[in-house]
Amino acid sequence: MNDALTQSLIRLSPGAQRSLRIALDNWLYTATILLCLFFAVAAPYFLTVDNVINTLVSASITGIVTAGFTLVLLTGTIDASISGVTALASVLTAVMFQRWNIPLPVTLLLLLLASVGMGLLSSLIVIEGRIYSLIGTLAASGVFLGLSVGIASGEQVAITKPELQSTLFQAPLGVPLSIWLLFLSYLLGYIVLNHTKLGAHIYATGANYSAARLSGVPVKRVIRIGLIIAAVATSLAAVLATGRANLSLLYGVTIGGVNVTDAFTAALLGGISLQGGVGKIERNLVAVLFLSILSNGLQLMGAAPAVWLVTKGIAFIGAVIIDAVRQRL
Amino acid sequence: MNAPVLSASSDAMQGQRRVYNRRESTIRFLLDNGLLVALVVEVIFFSVASPTIFFSRDNFFTILRSSAATGITVAFFTMALIARQLDLSTAQVGSLTAVIFAWLFGINGQPLGVAFVVALLCSVLIGLLNSWLVNRLRLPALIGTVAVGTLCYGVTLAIVQASTKTGLINLTRPPLRSIVSTEILGVPVTVILMFIVYFVAYILLNHTKLGAHLYALGGNPQAARLNGIKSTRLIRFVLIGTAVSAGVAAIMVSGRNLSAGSVSQVGASGTLLGGPLIAAVFAGVGLNGGSGKVERTLFGVLFLTVLSVGMSILQATPFVRITAEGVSFVLAILLDSIRQHLESR
Amino acid sequence: MDQKEPILELRGLSKSFGFVDAVKSVDWQVYPGEVTALVGDNGAGKSTLIKMICGALRPDAGEMWIKGIKAEMADPADAFRLGIAPVYQDLALVDNRDVVMNMFLGDELTYGLFNLFLDHQRMARETQRVLDEIHSRIPNVREVVRKLSGGQRQAVAVGRALIRGGEVIIMDEPTAALGVEQTAEVLNLIETLRSRGKTVIFISHNIGQVIQVSDQISVMFHGRMVGTRRTAETTNEEVVSMIVGAKKDLEHQPNS
User: Fold this and answer.
1) CA dihedral B292, B298, B304, B310 (to 10 degrees)
2) B253 φ, ψ to 5°?
3) I want to staple A123 with a disulfide (CB 3.0 to 4.6 A). Which of A28, A224, B57, B101 is the partner?
4) Contacts of residue C176 in chain B, CB cutoff 8 Å?
C-alpha cells in the first residue's frame, strides 16, 4: 500500500509509530473503560449491581451470535444466514415445545440437531456449489425463512407452558443463565481458537486458503465446521430470545437484536478482518460489551433510541477507520 | 500457466475441442438466456392460472410500476458490482434520502424542486463518504458501506422520531403524487424512467470508455491501474451512482405511498442484504467483479416482481411465496456457479 | 557505438521506501533499435527502476530524458504518451475481457459526439493487424483472454505495448513462468520487435537468454547500476561477477 496515509505514517518516528500502534491495538479496551467512567458519572444508576447484570444480559444474545459469527469469519467466510437461522430456530423451539408438547430437553436436543443441519446446508451450498459465502449463506437464509414461515403457518406462536422461561431465567450463583452462556461461549471459542488444532486450521484457512489447502489443512471441513458452529451459536441465541419474549419470531421482525448487522458491527469493532485469518475472539467480547454499555448508558441518560443508533453508526465507522490506520503500521 | 501442455495439443485434440466447444456453447447459450426463458415461462404460467386478473394491461403496468424503483437501484448497483464494489447501504441511504425529502417537503413546506434537490445532494454526500472510505482508507466497499448504512439508519430514525409520532411522515401535499403517477402515452413516467436508466446503462457499459474501464477495474484492479485507468474516479462514480439511484427510488416509492418513514422502508428491506443484491445475483452478476450484463439484471428484477405479483394474485400463502422465492434464488446461484465453472475451464 | 543518441537516459534517479534505498542515483542510457538487458539479483532494484520508468512510481530525485527531452511522468498514462510501454510480468491482463479490450485497456478508441462511444470495429481491425505483425496466432480476437495459452497471452501484452505506439518496450521477466517452447516463442518475439526497429528493455535472471538476444547488458547491484557492457564484448562470467557484486565499473559510480 502506497497511499497518502501510509506515507504520512512512515514519516513518523519509530517511537511515535510504536506508541501509536499500542494505542490503536488497545483502543477498544481504553474506550470501554472511559465509557464506563463517563456513564458512572453521568448516569446515576449505571454502577448498580442490577444495572451491570442488565447490561450483561442484554449483551448476551448479540454476544453469543457474534462468537459463532467471529469463528466462521476467521475462516474467511461471511455467514449471512443469521436471520434465517434465528427465525427457523425460534419457530422450531416454539412449535415443538408448545404445539407438539415435546418435553423441553428433547426439544433442545432436536433443535441442536436441526441447527447442525442448517449449518450443513449452508456449507453444502457454499462449498460444494462453489458459491461466494455471502451469497450462498444468504440463499440458505432464504430457505430457512421459508421453512420457518411454513412450519408456523405464518403465525407467531405464543408459548404458554412455563418451563422454558423457568429454565432460562435461572441464576446459578446469583448470575443469570444467559450471562453464564455468554461467557461460556467466548471461553469455548477462546480455547478452540488458541489451543486446538481446529483453531490453528481456522486461522490458516482464513489467512491463505490455497496455501492452507496445499499444506494439508482440510479447508473444506474447517469451513463446514465453522458454519455449523455459527448456526448452533445463533440457534442458542434464538432460544434465549424466544424464551425472553415467550413468542416465536415472525418473518421480517427481529427481536432482541439478532441480526447480521449487529454481529458485523461487533466483529469489526473487535478488529476481525473480513478477509479472514486475523483477529482475536476475546476482543470481540469486549466489543459486544462496549456496544451494550453504550446502549445501556444512553438509555439511562434518557436518550432517544435514534441517538443510540447514530452513536453505534459513528462507533462503527470509527472502528473501521482505526482498523485501516492500524493495518498500515 | 500450464502453457506447455496446451501448446502440445495435436490436431486431433483440437478437433475434439472444437466439437466440445460447440456443445459447450449451446449449454452456455441456455445458461446465458435461462433467465429470459424463465421469465417467459413464468408469465405464461401466471397468465394461464389467472387469465382475467394477471393477463391484463393494468396488471402488466402494475408489474412494471412496482419494478421501477428497485430496477433503477439495481441498474446502478450492477454497475458498482461490475467494478467490484459491493454497496450494501442502498436500503439505508434510500430511506434516509426519502425521509430528508419528506421532512423538507411534507413538514418544512419547501417547494418540491428544492426538497428533491437537497435530498439528492444528501445522497451524493453519502456516496462520497462511501467512496472516501474505499479510496482513501482502502476498505473493501462491503465494510465501508455497511458502516455508513448503520449510520444512515440511525439518522433516519432520529429524523422520523423528532418530527412525527406515528413513525410516518405525511406526503399528501398536492404536486408529488400527481407527478409520480403521471403517464405519458399511457405509460407511467416511473416506468419510462426505468427504461431510460437501463438504456443509458447499457450504452455506458458496452459502448463507452467509462464502461470498459469499469469492467477492467472489476476484472483485474492491478492491471487496470498499470494501464493508466484511474480507479479512484471510477469508484467514486459508481458509489455516488448507487446512493443517488437508491435515493431517487425511495422518493418514488414514498411519493406513491404518500408517506415516508423508517418503518415502512427500512422495516421491509432493512436487513443487511436487501433487494438489489438478490436481483443482481439473480441475473448472474458475480461479486468478483468484471462480469455481468446490465440488461440481464432488468430481467432479474422483472422475474422477481412477476413472481411476487403473481403469487399475491393467486393468493398464495406466505409459505409458498417465500419458499418459491428462496428456491428460485438457490437455483439461480447454482446455475450461475455452473456457468462460471464452464467459463473458468 | 556511441554515435547514436540514447532514446532513454536516466540521470541520478533515486527512490527509497521508508528507510530502504531501493534505487540509488542511477545513470543509464538505452539506445534506439537495440535490445538492452537489465540483470541483477533479487532485490537489486530492477523492478523499482522499471516502475519509475513506466510512471507507476515517482522517483524521489533524478531526471529522465526521453528522445532528448526531459520527461515528467505522473502516472502510467504519461509514460505511454512518451512511447514507454511496459509488459508486466503478470502481463496485467483482465482475464474475463476479450483480446481486443485487453489490447486497448485504458486507451480505448472512440468515435462520435465528444468521442463518447467505443469504436469496436476499428479496435478489432487494429488488434488483428498488430497480432499479424508479430506473427501471433490467435484465431479469434473476441475470445476472452482466460482461454489463451501462455505464449498467446504474452503476445496480447506485447501487442498492447505496440498498439499504443510503444517505442521502448519493457519486458519484465517475460520467460519466467514459461516452458521451453513458449520461451523460444517469446525470444522470437523480441527478435521480431528489434527487426521492426523497436527498442526493447529485457529484464531477466537467465544470463544465457540475455546473451542470446541482447545488444547491451546492464547490471544492477544493491540499488546501483554497477556496469553496462556491449554483449558482443563481454562474457557470461563477467556478467555473473557483476551480478554478485564482485566487480564494479568505477565510471558508473555516482559522484555525489
Assistant:
1) -150
2) -65, -45
3) A224
4) none
Q: Is C211 on the interface with B (CB under 8 A)?
A: no
Asked if residues A178 and A240 have their Cβ atoms less than 8 Å apart, the reply is yes
Q: Which of C102, C88, C90 is nearest to C54 (CA)?
A: C88
Q: Measuring CA to CA, which residue among C105, C138, C108 is closest to residue C122? A: C108
Report d(CA B165, CA A57) in Å as an integer: 30
Cell numbers 424463465 correspond to what residue?
B38
Beta-strand relationship, C61-66 and C8-17: antiparallel
Give me the total of CB pairs closer than 8 Å, taking one residue from chain A and one from chain B.
150
Rama region for B132: left / alpha / beta (φ>0; ψ in -120 to 50; rest): alpha
Which H or E run contains A139?
helix A133-151
C-alpha B202/C-alpha B294 separation (Å) is 6
CB atoms under 10 Å from CB of C69, counted, come to 8
Kindly report the nearest CA distance between residue A171 and chain B, in angstroms: 34
pLDDT in tens, A69-100: 999 989 988 888 888 898 889 889 988 988 88
Q: How far is CA A249 from the centre of its chain?
A: 18
Enter the C-alpha cell of residue A221.
471441513
What pLDDT score does B344 carry? 63
pLDDT at C153 over 60: yes
Name the phi and psi angles at A96, rounded to 5: -65, -45
Q: What's C85's DSSP letter? A: E
Contacts of C34 (CB under 8 A, 6+ apart): C194, C199, C200, C214, C215, C216
Q: What residue has cell string 443469570?
A: A176
Residue type, A309: L
- As beta bridge partners, residue C201 has C36, C170
Question: Residue C117 CB: number of other CB atoms within 10 A?
Answer: 17
Distances (CA, A) of A125 to A70, A76, A118, B93, C123: 20, 16, 11, 31, 41
Number of other CB atoms surrounding residue B166 within 10 Å: 10
Query: Cβ contacts (< 8 Å) between B21 and chain C: which residues?
Result: none
Strand partners, C11: C63
Q: How far is B320 from chain A (nearest CA, A)?
A: 8
Q: What is the pLDDT of residue A249?
A: 66
For residue range B112-144, list pLDDT tens digits in order: 899 999 999 999 999 999 999 899 888 888 888
Question: What cell was used for B25?
Answer: 456453447
Q: What is the ipTM of this complex?
A: 0.74
Task: Compute how many other C-beta atoms are within 10 angstroms of the C-beta atom of residue B83.
Answer: 27
Mean pLDDT, range B181-210, rounded to an integer: 91
DSSP letter assigned to residue C250: G
pLDDT at position B267 is 35
CB spacing of B287 vs A80 below 8 angstroms? no
CB B119 within 8 A of CB B101: yes
Distance from C-alpha of C28 to C-alpha of B296, rounded to nearest angstrom: 53
Going A196 to A198 to A199 to A204, the CA torsion angle's sign is positive
DSSP string, B161-199: HHH-SSS-EE---HHHHHHHT-EETTEEHHHHHHHHHHH
Question: Rounded to the nearest 5°, which phi and psi values hold at B75?
Answer: -60, -50
